[in-house]
DNA sequence: ATTGCGGGGATAAAGG
DNA sequence: ACCTTTATCCCCGCAA
C-alpha cells in the first residue's frame, strides 16, 4: 500500500515537472532544476533558522532552541499516537524485500533510504528504533540501543546479502548532506529532513505550510523558473491529496 | 585500550 | 559502452 502511494507521489512529481516544461521557454533539465530547487529550499531553511541555527533568525520566526524542542517532544509524541491506530502495518510487510515488492511493476523506482526512514518514523512499531524530535521541522533521532535493528531491517528491505549496519547506513545519510536532502545536526544520532523532502513525503504536512519562500524570490534574481516549478509541484500534490488519505 | 559516533575516499550497483 | 546517481565498504579521528 505504501508502495503504491509512493508511486502516485512520484507520478505527481513528474507531472508537475511536465507542466513546467510545457510552460517554460528555455531549456529545462529535470535533474539540474530539481537540484537547484533543493538547494534553494535548503538555503531558505538556513535563512529561517532551524534548530541548528547559525545565528541568523528572521524576525517573524520564534526563537527556537533545544529546550523548546524537548518540551514539545511529549506533545509530538502524542500526535504520533493518533496516527498509530491508523497505520498498523504488520511486521512482515516491513521486512519484505523491495525486490519482491517490485515484482510485476514496471519501471518502479527503488526505495530510497530517506523514504524508508520516513516510513519508519510513521510506524509505531519502529518507535524503539527511530523517533521524531520535532516532526514539523523534520528532525528525527535514532535510538542508540536499537539503531542497529533498524539498519538491519533496511538491509533486508533492500534484499542485501550482507547485513546492514548503522555505521554504513549513517554513511548514506552523510551523502544526503551533499544534496541537502537530510542534514546532520549537532545532536547525537539526530538528523533533519530538508523542507523539500518533507513536502515530498508528507502531502498533508505540505498543504498546511504557507509559501514561505515566495517572499525571498524576486523575478529578476533568476529564481522565477524555480518558483513556477514549485507552484506546479504544489498543484500536483494538492491533486494527489484529494485522491488519497493524509499520511503522517 | 575500548566504545560510540561522525567524517569521507573509494568503489559497487543500478538505471538511463 | 559510458555516465550519473545512490548505496555500500572500509578506514580514520575524536572524545568519553
From TrEMBL:
**GO CC annotations?**
nucleus
Q: Which residues form the ETS domain?
A: 111-194
Any Gene Ontology biological process: blastocyst development
GO terms for molecular function, please?
A: DNA-binding transcription activator activity, RNA polymerase II-specific; DNA-binding transcription factor activity, RNA polymerase II-specific; RNA polymerase II cis-regulatory region sequence-specific DNA binding
What the entry lists under PROSITE patterns is as follows: ETS_DOMAIN_2, ETS_DOMAIN_3
* InterPro entries (UniProt xref): Ets_dom (IPR000418), ETS_fam (IPR046328), WH-like_DNA-bd_sf (IPR036388), WH_DNA-bd_sf (IPR036390)
Keywords, A to Z, come to: DNA-binding, Nucleus, Transcription, Transcription regulation
Q: Report the SUPFAM superfamilies cross-referenced here.
A: Winged helix' DNA-binding domain (SSF46785)
At the top level, the lineage of the source is Eukaryota
Compartment list = Nucleus
Question: What is the recorded function of this protein according to its Swiss-Prot or TrEMBL entry?
Answer: Controls the development of red pulp macrophages required for red blood cells recycling and iron homeostasis. Transcription factor that binds to the PU-box, a purine-rich DNA sequence (5'-GAGGA[AT]-3') that can act as a lymphoid-specific enhancer. Regulates VCAM1 gene expression.
* Family per record: Belongs to the ETS family.
* PANTHER family reported for this sequence: ETS, TRANSCRIPTION FACTOR SPI-C
This protein's assembly is summarised as: Binds DNA as a monomer.
- Protein name per the record: Transcription factor Spi-C
From which organism does this entry originate? Sus scrofa
